[in-house]
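User: Could you write out the 3D structure of this protein bound to manganese (II) ion? I've included everything you need below.
Assistant: Certainly. Input first, then the structure.
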Amino acid sequence: MTGKSHARMPLHPAAQNGRKLLRYLEKKGKSISPLLIVTHDYPDPDAIATAYALQYIAKKKFGIRSRIVYKGTVGRVENRAMVNLLRIPIHKIRPSDIRKYDHAALIDTQPDFENNPYPRNRKVTMVIDQHPYVKKPLADFVIVDTECGATSVILAQALLLSGLEIPRKLATALAYGILSDTLNLYRAKRADIIETYLSILPLCDMRALIKIQHPPKTKKFFSTLSKGLGVAKALRGLIISHLGEVEHPDLVSEIADFLLTYEGMERSFCTGRYEDKLHVSLRSNRPTDNTPEILRDIFDDRKEAGGHDMVAGGAFTVTGKEKDENRWQEAESALVQRLLRRLRIPAKAEFYSPFWTGGASRA
Ligand SMILES: [Mn+2]
């Protein structure tokens, strides 16, 4: 539909945003170079692909140099496979990065969100995101498209409109970013999301894409999964699992995704302890659920939870240096109590342990 004869046809929303981005970069050019590209903490494929595409366009078309940084880890095996196979240059943020770069682009996150390492008191140059905001982000340039399915869609459109050659690695990253954020396009609410994906797909390295989607998983993953299943409790379409200490926080969302696939389940809720924080994931397959809103409602500090569509996550500090088992447990059970209340499940309703194999005596 983007053939030459249709040049004056109105662009669909993703393409409009792509063009808006190109125009901004053209106007600013080297005045915003070098640019610090900051993703959200524990970046997911969508954040990684978006950052990578922004770096490519900025450099190749406008001569803007940049560095992609994140806080936390790239934990999920799929995400690590993506970064390794496609050789995506993303780096752990260093304190000196904040000092050295005058310009920052926040990707798949916003200045007011708690899930990025950029100081609240520092001016942000660009924001490109899909998450709903409470307060309009303060920045020189803002695109927040809550209906775009994945932030990668905006960058894929910018790339398609830029006239640049599209490297296979980059196309593959964007395709995976779109797939993973939209649950294989299931959550794609607009036709232009699917159009964008289809435009990028022929340019992909299909072998790399399949390897990213099915990477070998570590023993640690299976032992965490085993534990998560063992302690899982379910009632009324809700399945809950407290993983205890985890090797990396992405395991929490991974297990939550997996538990949601148990037949009869509509929502999954998972927690994991990492360093001094409790990491929390909530998943739903009820299209009417505003999952991020549910999670925010059960957090003390609403800013510590977020997400989009039927995916939500968050983290908050529970304990200091002395790891206090009681405080962890209190935090976990307080969340569950609030969640039950929020979902109007009576407190006296009884959980069952669907996968418990440790003996008959367990309550
Ligand atoms: Mn995203």
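The radius of gyration is 21 Å.
User: Perfect, thank you.
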